[in-house]
Each structure stands twice: as C-alpha cells, then as structure tokens.
Design a protein that fits this description.
By secondary structure, this protein is mostly helical. The chain contains five helices and two strands; from the N terminus they run αααβαβα.
Length: 167
Amino acid sequence: MVSVPGLVWLALTWLGTLMRFPENVDVVKYISLTVFVLLILGLMILSILRTEHVTNNTICRAVSTYLLIGIAWFLIYTLIMRYNSGAFRLNTTAGIEKAQLAASDLLYMSFCTLTTLGYGDIIPASPLARGLVMLEATIGPLYLAILLARLMGLYLTSQRQGKTRED
C-alpha cells in the first residue's frame, strides 16, 4: 500500500520521457512523490521509536530519517512554488543577482531551515510558506532532541541490564 504513490510517480516519470503531459499530470507526479516520501518517512520514524536496542543500523536509520525530513520539506516547497511562484523570494539585500529560484535553492533552503541555520538569503513571502518554514524550523530541533533522548534511554537501559546480568 505504501508503494502505490511511488509506483504512480515512477510510471508518470517514465511515461513523461516518452510523451509530453499536460501540466496537471506533472503536478500529480510531484504530489505522488511527496506522499510516497512522507509515508516512507513515517515508517522510518515508527521503526526508530519501536526499536529496543541501539545498533549501528538504528543510528544509520535515524540519520537517514533526518535527511529525508529535509527532502520531504523540499518537495513540499516545490509544490508550493508550482502554485504560487512568489511564495519564496531571494533576499536582494544579500547581494544575490539571480532572477529566479531554482529547485536547488529550495533544497538548500529546506536544510538551512531544518538545521535552524537560516542564512536569510531566501525569504518565505506567502503566509503558507511562512507557516511551513516555521513548522520545519520547529521539527528539526525537536526531532534531534526526541531522537537523542530515545536513543540514550535505550542505551542506558541496555547498559543497566548488561551490568545486572554480570553481577
């Protein structure tokens, strides 16, 4: 069931190389990719929260999840830009001379926001964009704090159980 949006995206992408689609089909392609990434992200977070022991795989899964959060927000920002080209704009006082935002700019902005780095060279201009940027800036540190607390709790529990067995 989780793979259905991914298969829709894959099929539309593949068919798009063979024929030209109307723009509304292109939007369906991006929406299906975004839904697929969000579903995978949810499954990864659940698997991290349900884990009982901290292993190298758990840590790799946690880091991958954090990176996937940034990619998911990038996809959401891309969808917003498709409907409202003025939702994000370049800060002209920062000395940027590009006329228009590229997809790579939105990816960059997503990770700057997720990590709360915030250079300020890309500005959310619409109310929807501002709200989503605030939400991403909140989710980034919360994810790290909750993840660190969860993994440390698991690690300390396994250490106590290991010492109890030895005694």
